[in-house]
Structures
1.
Amino acid sequence: MEWFLLGCAVFFGLVSAYLAWQWMETRQQLRQCQAQHDELETIWHQFPELLVLIDSQGRIMRFSRPLLRPIAASQDEDSPLKQTALFQDYLPDDVQTEYRNVLRSVVEQRVPAALGINLSAPVCRLQLQMIPIADNHDAPVMVLVEDVTEAHRSEQQLINDKHRAERASVAKSRFLANMSHEIRTPMTGLLGMVSLMEQTELSEEQSNFLRVIQSSSEHLLSIVNDILDISKIEAGKLTLEEEAFDLARMIETLLDMVGSKAQEKKLVMQSFIDDDAPQLLVGDSIRLRQILMNFLTNAIKFTERGHVLLRVVVVRHLPSAVHLRFSVEDSGIGIRADRAMTLFDEYVLGHDQLSTAAGGTGLGLSICKRLAELMGGQVGVVSTPGIGSNFWFDITLSVATCDVPEPVEEQVAKGQTLWICDDLQVNRTLLISIARKLGMKTREFTSADDMLPVLIRESPSMIVISRNVWDGASDEFRNYVKHHPTRVAMSSPDVLTHDGEELLEQGIHAYWDWPISQHTLSDLLVRLLQQEPSSQHLVTRYSRAPAEPRVSMTARQPVPELAGARILLAEDNPVNQRVTSQMLSRLGCVVSTANNGQEAVSARQESDFDLVLMDCHMPVLDGLDASRAIRAWEAENAHTPVPIVALSADVMSDRKAECEEAGMDGYLSKPIRLNELKRELPNFVRMHTQ
């Protein structure tokens, strides 16, 4: 019995100890749970955004802080909220439907979702984040309500500002296009009259006045073009053409365009193209030429003596493409380093005083940079004050996939010997480069005295001597060359002003003036090799025609293809109509005029023409509608379509597309020049006669 009582006592003692330990453990867990609950409550109430717990029906279970009036009718958390739905009666029907659909998706799929809603009282924008608490469908949903009114208002402000900026850009482009038209229209009359007056009998003083008018007009036109280019680039409306072009021909055209300016300043102007540079490339040759033209004109403008060099260097060959560096080097005044860093920024001039004197807007180099970037390239400059500058342009161009025939002239010149006597290294370098391409052996001298002893012992196939060296040579050297059987060519920065008999008498068989392209010079050397040394024919560059003699304004200079061509000119501006009519008459055309588009349509219906020149902006009926009316009448009456060429002062790219859509066959930009009419119109007249 005693053992039994003792066992019971021990048992109850152990049970009591276990219960006491369990109670203490439970109490500890309750304390921890209370602490966690307090932490969660603190987070719940201190959370910066509003937290709302709702059931699967959307009814409010609890919230973290007093609700906004539009969110629920009650403001008291102790009130019976079970019957109050979130946003009840405060959302438009369509938004209420969207809210319920999103809530249903969260409840059924147990996947978080977001929704933005606008409230009108008060006006605010709320962003809702709905998060399911558990996986079962009856579990509540946590809704994070964030007031994004200010952020939304800022976003809308940015959108509105963007739209205003776009509208302003469009308005600016439209304004510049209209200004271009208004400026180019009178420029047609001005430059047209200048070109016609140049052909009249003028005194030297009158000729000088006329040249000033023409150069000033061209300068004004270049400023307008620069402003338009900047506008088109900023508006994203500048389109690049991808066409095959001949690299050497493009360089030759550039030299022809700026060569006379270099000759006026007695500058040596040359071009070098790497031997391994592809002949045919694919790209926008017009924009490429625009960049190089800007570099060249600036180099000539700021160089008083020395040279201007245009180089084309192959940086590396790529599959079906080539990376080229175009550079223009000069021996001008140079640019300080701090100026060079910002030279390609808009409205920045390299030399304030000199630029003011020479003329400049600070737009040219900025446009070059923009164009280079559009073509996937880049521009830069290396310059030293007092020594000169080197403006470069890197670009990758595709190589045209067409076969280039092997030049025949290489067979004629291969193995021949060329001696070069010139005191300028740049001239000797160019001649050596061309000679190597032709397969010729070369030897260079810097003076006639150095060459004479060697010439007495040896006889080359050809000698090229500069005018400067020749003028300073001894009588002994000149007499020896005169009676020597070898061919002799002379180079000079001056254009040949006489018939060349004097040179032939001195033993000179060929003559050219700098600058000259590699292609033209190569052809000239080959033609000289093909000619007998005893020939009395002076070989000169064939690409540069002598200046046309001045003739009377009333004298006709008909172009064979345009002789008797019937031209209808539709132009509302009286001055431009008169100038263009006189240009056409001088080319041998028979001109009829119309003052507006309706008159042009009537004239076409009454008479046959070989060509219609149609101004785009005219009263009563503009050029586009007039062209459509003419095409419709021709189709209805089975008449052969007459070529229609647009005359427009609007240089925006979409204008050409509009003219083509209206049925026009060509496009000429104002101001119209006589040489342009002479070059372009025969193609359209032939198209009609054929």
2.
Amino acid sequence: MGGTISGNNNTQGNDNIHGNNNIRGNNNVAGGEQIRATKVVEMLADLEEKILNFTPLPEANRENSITRLKAAKVEAKESQPDKESIAKSLKRVNETLNEAGKTTEEVKELVNELFPTVKKVAGYLGYAAGKIWMM
């Protein structure tokens, strides 16, 4: 009988393995996305700070870019963010910077400097970085 009891314990072990714990793990994936979304907000804030402090960028271009990044941050904080909206905001920031870069060489350098961060955000959004950010 001791073996039968041991077998019953194994069956209980199978019930535990059966997926209940795995399902909880899957729910944690959503938590992981929340963490990634939080990281995206941090990265957008980093982009915002770099642009804000970049004095060679004309004031109008700076304000325009900051406004769009703030909108992207607000969207990224949503429980179900509209990733397309965030991508469009980043693309418009890039267009603004590229336009300013036609007359200011330092702005071109800024666009290149921001690219690694934009690439990470693009990955979260499910976009190829080149669709959002042109150098």
3.
Amino acid sequence: IIETLNNVPLVSFTIIFFYFVIKYDYKNLFKSKDYINSLNKTLKGFNLYLDNKTLKLCLIGTLRKE
């Protein structure tokens, strides 16, 4: 393992490769309409929803002041 860590090109390529693979997979996951609809059904119980365009978590209604 230590010899592998000293191989800078190999470690750099591996890190960059996994970064792009994970980024691509998550980007496609959140663009899926079925996933967003399912997530919004779950979040509705907490008065939240996920905006389709900006992928921001939004609040339904207003906050109650106690």
4.
Amino acid sequence: MKQNCYVLSVSLCFCFILPGMKQNCYVLSVSLCFCFILPGMKQNCLCFECFLMFLLHFAWNEAKLLCFECFLMFLLHFAWNEAKLLCFECFLMFLLHFAWNEAKLLCFECFLMFLLHFAWNEAKLLCFECFLMFLLHFAWNEAKLLCFECFLMFLLHFAWNEAKLLCFECFLMFLLHFAWNEAKLLCFECFLMFLLHFAWNEAKLLMF
């Protein structure tokens, strides 16, 4: 409280600990009080990242009192709406590290859907092109869990059916830029076949 930790402490007490004590989370609540809040208020010894790591270790590995979805919602509510200590990109990277590398509780498609819901519908901090670039970087360069065709289908579903933010010509240009110039995973004939399948069978935007 002396070192500008007042908002952090009060938020934890009233947003998480007191409700948790009423909902049969007594062990978690008491441990948070004595292991983090009281020492932190006196010594300011834990940075925000360390605190999140502590929550992950205790609340998830030991207490098993929060379902994964509720825990992520808590992190989103506190870390993003109240604390404002992590830039959006860093926060997504943190979620990626925990939810994908450590927890292994979400299938890749569900995790992308979660990111889409938060980053696109709620945060509104990334332009659509930047968000697609972020997805491309993670899903393609790091995870290597989706074949290229499946990944393009995922992009088609979101960018075309839900977002409606790209005109058809711009969307094709985006696909051309990635699939042809960067990935080099489709021969030209296969890529034309892919365009034919989408543009003719699904979109119905090209006359014969």
